[in-house]
Write a structure and sequence with these properties.
five-stranded antiparallel beta sheet, single chain, alpha+beta, 20% strand, 5 strands
Length: 86
């Protein structure tokens, strides 16, 4: 779990929009797409590991993975949710 104090200062590195923890529904949608082999991050690399936690940009369009409690806040590591099936 991301430290609440850290969460207060984290923003999307691209748009500077605030981020919030992704809910279970968003994570399941992303993980289903990962299992189907249909997730590519913004850097063009296939995402193969399921996510236990993620941070969702305020507009709901990009998800940043959290691995071992560490947010991966790199533009190329973001997952564009608009390309995923519902």
């Amino acid at each position: 779990m991301v430290d609440p104090e850290l969460l207060e200062i984290l923003v999307c590195p691209e748009t500077k929009q605030p981020v919030r923890p992704a809910d279970a529904q968003v994570l399941e949608r992303v993980n289903a797409a990962i299992r189907a082999g249909g997730v590519v991050n913004r850097g063009g690399e296939t995402v193969s590991e399921p996510l236990e936690e993620g941070l969702l940009r305020e507009d709901g369009r990009v998800l940043y993975a959290v691995r071992d409690g560490i947010p991966i806040m790199l533009i190329d590591e973001g997952i564009d949710l608009s390309g995923l099936s519902a």
